[in-house]
Amino acid sequence: MKTSFNKLGRFTSLLAVCSLCSLSVSPLVIAEEADIEPSVFGLKLSQIPEGFRDLAEPQTTEADFYYGGRYIGSETVTYTPESIIIADPAAVLSRLSMISNPDAVQAALSGEIPSNPGSICVQPRDTECGQLTPPVAGVIFDADNFRADLFIAEPYLKVKTIHKSKFLPESNSPLGLIQGISAVSSGVTGSGNNQDNYSLFGNTLLGWQENHLVANWDYSKDNSFQIDTFYLERDAQGLQMGAGYLDYSGTMTSEFASSQQVLGFKIGSSMNSRLDMANINSTPIRIFANGRRRVEVLRDNRLIYATSVNAGSQEIDTSSFPQGSYQLTIRIFNGSTLEQEFSRFYTKSVRLPPSDETLWYVEGGEMTERLENETLPESVNEWLMRAAAARRVTENSSLELRGTATGEEQTLEAEYFIQGGAWDFSLTGMAGNNSAKGLALQSSTSFGPVQLSYNHRRLWNDSYQPEQSNGEENKALFLGESNESRSLSLATAFLGGNLSGSYSYNKQNLDDQVPTSLQDDGSTTIYSLSWFRNIIQFSDHGLDLELDYSESDDDKTGTIALTLRRSSRNWNYNIRAEGRREEQSDQSAESDFGYAVDSRWSRDEILNGAGELGVRYEDLPGEQTLMGGDVKYEHARFLTEFSADYIDPDNQDSYTNYNGRLETSFAINAQGAGVGGGNRADSALMVVIDGSPDARFDVLVNGTSAGIAVGNGKTVIPLTPYGEYLVSIRPRGEQFYRYDQAEHRITLYPGNVETITFTAEEELVLLGKLIDEQGNPLKNATIPGEEGFARTDAFGIFQVRVPAKGNQLQVNIGNGQSCTATIPAQYQKRSGIGMVGVLQCR
Asked: Where is the signal peptide (predicted)?
């Protein structure tokens, strides 16, 4: 039962009558019976006239129950003006799934409980009503409308978490192969010393569901065919495991130990298959609402999130919140009334481990190395073990432990990371055998427009011995020689432009026994400061000013440059004038002036692809002039680039530098094979357009164009693995098509090749005039088309959409009669519209 009444309430009438009648009751009678008579709305039973006393007796009816403003069902109740008995509390609670302690809540609602009539809202805009904060559970019963609103205390409710799957769904992809190929070449001609070099790289992925076999190989001018890594791996449900020729490049890498190839195994945590990454790296925010409420979240008094929630305890979706650690203000409104306001400290960082688990990994095996003319990596007769674990310490900090060990070296590292509102800081310490130790510090901050970062890393390894006792290279070491590096960078807005500066210091072979000021230690120190500003911008022209100063040890360089830019739809032009002053330690200062001109043309639609062409001429400060150009072409099947520069130095023969690359990929599965473009990925979508050989479609992946598919062919669209995608197509150009407009959902893991087939048929919009055999216009005739019927007007003019391969029109002329008009073989077509002229219908 779900009812609504609008009548004079029986208890409202009772209260009014009893209030009037009570004026004639003797105070002595009230005093005498004060401790023994029941009361109704504060009135003794003897104070109620006998004709109305039956209204104060317990009444039984069926009431509508609501929770959080939503109807949850009906149940029999027995009530008096101040109390209520729910016949079956368990039946009411069975309709609520968010109760964490049903037994306690049921006990609180059992027997005779207060009906709280004083909390009923009399007027629609009343705000000091309709709320109840019971210790466990309670109701507000409105006897006028037979409505019971249920309230449950927050500790007895489950938290409504964000409804997102934790892991990527399982893949149903059959066996598939993805092969990526990249060729790179480089060389120089002229000056009597011609040189050239080339390499061919390949990445082979054989995948089946969540499992994949990986092989990375190459072939170069100086080396024969070599396999770099070759392993079998499975990565699903947050766990990664693999075995073979491995080269670890995970997230918990050592700060001081170099990466080493091994023939062995790996197992550990993986975030690749997690779908809730936006939330697991952030502090959960939970709120409690008594009903349907509006929630606002503010940072620095700025609204960053708003939503509406239902009654109960629930978690806010923080996936859109910015990264950092900061204070939030949460406000909960009932209409325009602010019910709650409180603060929470919030942290979100991609560097912090998930708050709900410890990340870990273990890897071990026999160390290997690449040798010339050897296909597979060769063993160095030494074992290696690596392990790491990371866990959050507080909401905005984490601790990570890493260990690496061989037969000769062992190290243990600990890294502490903390993130504030506009800053972060990490400190890493390392201790190893043979007195090796290391310290690394990283920090960044921003205040206003200023951004600062500082990095400092130092390794002490006095016992480093790169050679064994027999004079051979010691290949079992993963710690290098002692070294130190420092860097500081700054970026800010300044005088209407952008100012940036940097400092770096690097030193190898540290010798703490000799003061730095007394030795030439081979260290390198570099300072740089630059300022850039656009000083004029009008229409498609712009003028930029750039100032730059750099210093490396005793060499100093200062530059001032003006660049005039012009941009149009397909062309970009730049003219640069530059003045430079150089001071070197062993030479006198020199000043020079030069200029450079370059132009670039680009077009998105050329020969079924996109192309760029650039030319340049430089006579900048220095001792050479340069003239060169480059070309780039990206097709649905491949990507190619080539660049060449003719250089004429002042003091030697001229020469030409050149380099180029070609990238492509192909995919194979049980449905066929297809060739992809240069943007290779570790999984792929194969799109088949069935019909219309000349058709060209944009392939939309999650609403964004990801490639171009052609009719009656297979097109490979490389896509990033560990993802869910919605795939559809959209026609390109001005032609009309009748095509499959459905969205298809796919899940991709490494090596997966999913095939989706779309149907497409070209259509034409025909525009013409129909006449009968006597030459009279056929008016109000109907022509069946692809989208219903088209009708001629009073002059026989029609417009109808038909398949492009059709050559006749069937025309209904009324009274059950029809005729046929033949479409001529040749007619004028413009932007998908065919002008067929006058057609005679026979």
From this structure: 1-31
